[in-house]
Amino acid sequence: MQRTDFSRMLCPVARAMAVLGERWTLLILREAFLGTTRFEGFLRNLGIAPNILTARLNELAAFGVLERVRVGGRHAYHLTECGRDAFPLYLAVRDWGARWYSGPEGPPTVMVEGATGRPVTAPVPRRADGTPLRPEDVRVTPAPGAPHAVRARFGAERTLG
Amino acid sequence: MQRTDFSRMLCPVARAMAVLGERWTLLILREAFLGTTRFEGFLRNLGIAPNILTARLNELAAFGVLERVRVGGRHAYHLTECGRDAFPLYLAVRDWGARWYSGPEGPPTVMVEGATGRPVTAPVPRRADGTPLRPEDVRVTPAPGAPHAVRARFGAERTLG
Question: Is the confidence metric ipTM above 0.95 for this complex?
Fold first, then answer.
C-alpha cells in the first residue's frame, strides 16, 4: 500500500504532522532549541543513527524548519522563523510528557526562564470566561475558501466532544 | 539496527513522542476531539488503512490516551483524562500547521469557542514581562532526582539558544 502524503491533506494538523510526525523529529528540534547546530552535536546528544539523522535533517531543511548554512567550511543547522515558531508546541508536548509519562522520581529536568528563574510551562488555553478550554467547548467551521468535502463535514453547526 | 525505545528515554519530549511520534496518531486524536468514538468513524474520516488504525488505537489504549469500552455490544474509544489533557498540544500543533503550511487559500477550517464564536488558538507562552517567550529565554536545569548523565549535561548553568 502506498504511503499517504500528509502534506497534501487539507487539515493543518495533518500538514504539521507531515513535518513533525516522525518520532525523532521533535527531539532534533529539542536539540536545536538547546543550541545544538552541528551534525556531530545532534548525533552525540541524541544517540541517533547517522543515516536517520541525515534523513531527518534533510526533511527539516526541505520543510523550512531548519536552514543548512556553511560556517567555517562545515555545515550548521539553524532554526528558521518557522522552526522558532514551533517552540510553543514543543513546550506543550514537553509538559504533557512530563505530566503523564514521568517515573515516580518526576521529570529529570526543569525548564526555567533565564532572566527570572521562573519555571516555564505552556500556557493553558482558556475560554472567554477564563476557565480552561475543554475539547467539548469548541467547534470547527469551514473557512471562506473551504472545499466541498470540508463544507459537507463541518458546514452544519456541530458541537465537538 | 534495533528500534530505539523512546519510552525508556528520560526526556519528557521523548516519552511524549513514544506515544505521539507516529504521524497518524495526532490525526486519530483530532478525530477523538471531534467526537469520533467508533472504529468505523475513524476509518471513514481519516482514510487510514484498517490494519494501521487497529495498531494505532491499540497503542493509544496501551499508553492510556484512549480507553476501549463496550457500548451496545461494540467497541468504542473514549478519551481518558490523559487524552483530554493533550488538547492544548493538539491546538498548538494545529496552529503551527495552519500558520506555516497552509496554501494561498488559507487553512480550510476555523476552530471557534462554541459559546461565544470566538476563534480559538493556542495561547502564546510569555516571559515574566509579558513579551513572547523565545527559545533563547529559557534554560534547562536538573530536577532534584536527576541521574548523573542529566546533571553532567545541564548541571552547570547554561543559557539556551
Answer: no
